[in-house]
Amino acid sequence: MVNTDDFIKRIEKILDYYNLTASSFADKIGVQRSSISHLLSGRNKPSLDFILKILDVFPEIDLYWILNGKGSFPKSNEIPLHSPTPISEPSIQNSSNPIKEVPTPKNTFSNDTIERIVIFYKDGSFKEYHPQ
User: Fold this and answer.
1) pLDDT tens digits, residue range 96-119?
2) Which one of 46, 54, 70, 114 has the minimum C-beta count within 10 Å?
């Protein structure tokens, strides 16, 4: 369960970081201004929809940080322990091993390109990777 007082402090930290008023924050994430006022006063608790709107508009806000204060704000570039190693291109200049060409399987079409890779975690979260 989200601790409302701590959640309010995290929202205030977001407002300070982006130099936003409560009204401009509400407008930016697409919620009524009164819902921000009720949240900041402690009258209402945040809904899942409210949290998702924040994360959609501000991708540098970490889900776990906004919910329970764990993690960092803004998101650090560190890889959390539960996340896979990011996919990266091999470096030819820094590699002492030559890059080996792997033959394309016969059932693969040459026009196929990867649009995105989605990894789903047991906790219901996911990460998307988009090739450059």
Assistant:
1) 556 666 665 565 555 667 778 888
2) 114
